């Protein structure tokens, strides 16, 4: 991700300067506005222009040496408990930096404590670590510091992160079994082609001209796999590496989500996941005191599908003009249509945050059921395809053996 240097004015008119990782110059301005700053300029740093520490930070992130999501969630919960117990923020961070967790987490707490000791707000200190603390986290902390509800907001953040991580694990586990079956099928196919079929080919080597086309095809496939095993390994490794890189690209992710949205079996899953994401995040931000425009902007920045993000941009423009969220959503085809009346009721009652969270919880249950159904269909389907493949190989070779035996008799 590109690195930008920026200059901005904070709420008191003080000039701020620093560096931040962002997708574009507009993304930098959006993040600064989210923090309540007025952007002045943002300049992309050329490769190698950053500090050596930045290079080590990137290397460390590639190795996964930074604090994990679960660690940050636990730290947030611990910090909330300490603040509720009457411990000051500075002392709480000092305690967390000495509590014996993993070294990256302890170092992060020590860094935050040092920033606060230098006069920075907690939100400003968190904003300096965008890879660890997302904009939603920073904005909620900023609002909480202003309203004096930091300990309650941190507890809310911890609960929301725990719920999101649990949902992500359920999605991942639902896809793990089918992925394992695909890998196992590839392994079985390679084993049969390199270890089993060659034995039959040697046994029938004297009758090659009398074999049926199916048997010849299988033996030719076996020779091709054995002769190009190293090339196939390189190709598979390249596909895997390319896939990992593509999954870091928002454009590809958006394309993949749109394609999945057109497949009957996964269309509902994509719709449910998008609804849970939008409503739960919006409800959490509004419930923490973040204004509606900033909340929608933060939700927009988290969308991985560019087309969905464009719809949220249109929604933000409508809300700024004085339109209701529910009325603006009605024509965007972003959420299921029967969600709109429920949000409208919440707006009219002044409880949009509560209603959005309820909708998110309802669709989270539906997403769980849809994932269970998808897994129950994919598993047997893949097993059936593997069984048919193996059966075809075996039947074809056995048929060839029987035909040769008939000729000998």
From TrEMBL:
<keyword id="KW-0812">Transmembrane</keyword>
<dbReference type="InterPro" id="IPR042094">
    <property type="entry name" value="T2SS_GspF_sf"/>
</dbReference>
<dbReference type="GO" id="GO:0005886">
    <property type="term" value="C:plasma membrane"/>
</dbReference>
<dbReference type="InterPro" id="IPR003004">
    <property type="entry name" value="GspF/PilC"/>
</dbReference>
<protein>
    <submittedName>
        <fullName>Type II secretion system F family protein</fullName>
    </submittedName>
</protein>
<feature type="domain" description="Type II secretion system protein GspF">
    <location>
        <begin position="278"/>
        <end position="399"/>
    </location>
</feature>
<feature type="transmembrane region" description="Helical">
    <location>
        <begin position="382"/>
        <end position="404"/>
    </location>
</feature>
<dbReference type="GO" id="GO:0015628">
    <property type="term" value="P:protein secretion by the type II secretion system"/>
</dbReference>
<feature type="transmembrane region" description="Helical">
    <location>
        <begin position="231"/>
        <end position="249"/>
    </location>
</feature>
<feature type="domain" description="Type II secretion system protein GspF">
    <location>
        <begin position="76"/>
        <end position="198"/>
    </location>
</feature>
<keyword id="KW-1133">Transmembrane helix</keyword>
<keyword id="KW-1003">Cell membrane</keyword>
<keyword id="KW-0472">Membrane</keyword>
<keyword id="KW-0997">Cell inner membrane</keyword>
<comment type="similarity">
    <text>Belongs to the GSP F family.</text>
</comment>
<feature type="transmembrane region" description="Helical">
    <location>
        <begin position="175"/>
        <end position="197"/>
    </location>
</feature>
<dbReference type="Pfam" id="PF00482">
    <property type="entry name" value="T2SSF"/>
</dbReference>
<dbReference type="InterPro" id="IPR018076">
    <property type="entry name" value="T2SS_GspF_dom"/>
</dbReference>
């Amino acid at each position: 991700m590109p690195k930008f240097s920026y200059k901005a004015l904070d709420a008191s008119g003080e000039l701020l300067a620093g560096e931040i990782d962002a997708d574009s110059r507009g993304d930098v301005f959006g993040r600064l506005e989210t923090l309540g700053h007025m952007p002045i300029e943002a300049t992309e740093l050329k490769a190698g222009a950053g500090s050596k520490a930045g290079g080590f930070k990137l290397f460390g992130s590639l190795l996964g040496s930074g604090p994990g999501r679960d660690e940050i969630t636990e730290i947030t919960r611990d910090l909330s408990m300490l603040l509720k117990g009457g411990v000051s923020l500075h002392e709480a961070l000092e305690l967390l930096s000495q509590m014996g967790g993993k070294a990256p987490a302890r170092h992060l707490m020590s860094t935050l404590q040092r920033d606060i000791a230098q006069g920075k707000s907690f939100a400003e200190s968190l904003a300096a670590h965008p890879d660890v603390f997302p904009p939603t986290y920073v904005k909620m902390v900023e609002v909480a510091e202003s309203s004096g509800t930091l300990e309650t907001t941190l507890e809310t953040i911890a609960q929301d992160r725990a719920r999101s991580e649990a949902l992500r694990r359920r999605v991942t586990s639902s896809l793990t079994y089918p992925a394992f079956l695909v890998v196992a099928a590839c392994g079985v196919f390679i084993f049969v082609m390199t270890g089993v079929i060659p034995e039959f080919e040697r046994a029938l080597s004297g009758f090659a001209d009398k074999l049926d086309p199916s048997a010849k095809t299988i033996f030719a496939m076996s020779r091709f796999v054995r002769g190009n095993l190293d090339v196939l390994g390189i190709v598979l490794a390249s596909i895997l590496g390319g896939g990992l890189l593509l999954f870091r690209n928002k454009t590809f992710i958006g394309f993949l989500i749109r394609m999945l949205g057109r497949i009957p079996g996964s269309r509902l899953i994509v719709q449910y996941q998008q609804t849970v994401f939008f409503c739960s995040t919006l409800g959490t931000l509004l419930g923490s005191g973040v204004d509606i425009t900033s909340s929608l902007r933060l939700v927009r920045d988290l969308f991985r599908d560019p087309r969905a993000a464009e719809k949220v941009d249109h929604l933000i423009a409508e809300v700024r003009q004085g339109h209701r969220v529910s009325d603006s959503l009605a024509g965007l085809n972003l959420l299921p249509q029967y969600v709109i009346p429920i949000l409208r009721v919440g707006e009219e009652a002044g409880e949009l945050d509560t209603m959005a969270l309820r909708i998110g919880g309802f669709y989270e249950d539906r997403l769980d059921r849809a994932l269970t159904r998808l897994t129950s269909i994919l598993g047997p389907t893949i097993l059936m395809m593997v069984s048919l493949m193996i059966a075809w190989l075996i039947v074809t070779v056995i048929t060839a053996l029987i035909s040769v035996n008939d000729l000998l008799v």
